[in-house]
Model the fold of this input.
Amino acid sequence: MLIEERQLTSSPKGHCLHNTQVFSDDDSLIVYDTRNDDSQIQTTGSIEMINAQTGEETLVYQVPHQNAYGPGAGAASFSPTRKSIMFLRGVLNCDQQHPYAFNRRSGIKVDIDQLKVAQNLDARNIVEPLVPGALRGGTHAHQWSGDGNWISYTYNDYLLDELSKQQPDKNFNRSVGIMIPDYPVNITHSVDAENFSGSMFSILISDLKIDAQPNTDEIFAAVDECWIGTDGYQTTSGQWQRKAIAFQGCLYDELGKEKREVYIADLTQCFSREELMQTVGSLTSPPLVPKPIQQRRLTYTKYGICGPRHWLRSSADGNMIAFLSYDENKLAQVFGVSPKGGQPYQISKLKAGVSGPFNISPDGKYIACLSNNNVWITDIKSGQAEQVTFHQQHDKAVGSVIWSNNGNFLAYNRYVKHADGNTYLQIFLLKLSDH
Done:
């Protein structure tokens, strides 16, 4: 495999890539936020994009009134079908008493023909009367569906987090949800930054149990999801499930220890207004999962999902869901499983294991990831891996390796020392041929 590597950015600031979908639909642009470390969303106030050919950097959005406590912005991605950028932003009234938090953020969209004009995607409403389709907390790690019309996210509930401070038995953990178009949500009593309208209707799709029982399929949290296939997957009956999400379900094993396994939520293509109106929840209970959504556990593995934090990934044809787990040497490797069920199988066999999030090529043939501080590409069918960068340990690579939509390029982050003596997170672009 022939590789041409190019350092795309060099300005003295962070250029932090999201874990997926950073290329525009025609692969001409790459979006990023200006964190110099992925823990710095609270203090990062700008989203930018860069021309992959010319290296020209352009400001997409600047958070108003950014301060040390927020609002913050980050985790930006491009729609796969149009020139729109989505990212998370903290609630706009962040200050020392009310700083940025997991349950105080939402999804924002900016169209690149109207840069700096922000649109709220999910509505937020933390006072009565609660409104169907509006959340009461914070969303993040948003991901576009293959057609660019729906959005998935993970969610933390502000109202129940506050309630749990007085009633610990009311604790509600992180969950997974989606935003659907055609049903904008209007919050008429929005009088401050805490409550606002949204252009999409938000629902939760993971069925959580506060008292999840050990050695059952009940889950107490759901995290780090992906859409299955560009257009869903084919079921065992031969029918197509057009919209489905795989997520990491958190459960208790037979010894009462926490463990994660792969779960699937099969979604209906069209929710009725009545079904959506019944999802509102209450001040003491979370938003409800619509009845048409079917949740099922997919994997029953020895170690569960293990290794560094990562998001599940699906092949474009929907035939495989990939995750990290331990091999016999307790190294994190990529494993695959069919959404129809069956035994998971090991894909990667990297000597140093996988060190972070990974992505599958658009043609479904390869997996790209970081291992031992360099980029590796693994052939999914054969398991054969090839190291495609050769950097020293002091040039630290971090985060995910992301494929372009045409599969000809990879983008990833690496720290580079600048002339001012500091190191900054820069974007590197790999051009692939003969792969």
Q: What stands out?
A: The CA atoms of residues 60 and 114 lie 9 Å apart. The first strand starts at residue 2 and ends at 7. Residues 158-164 form the longest helix (7 residues).
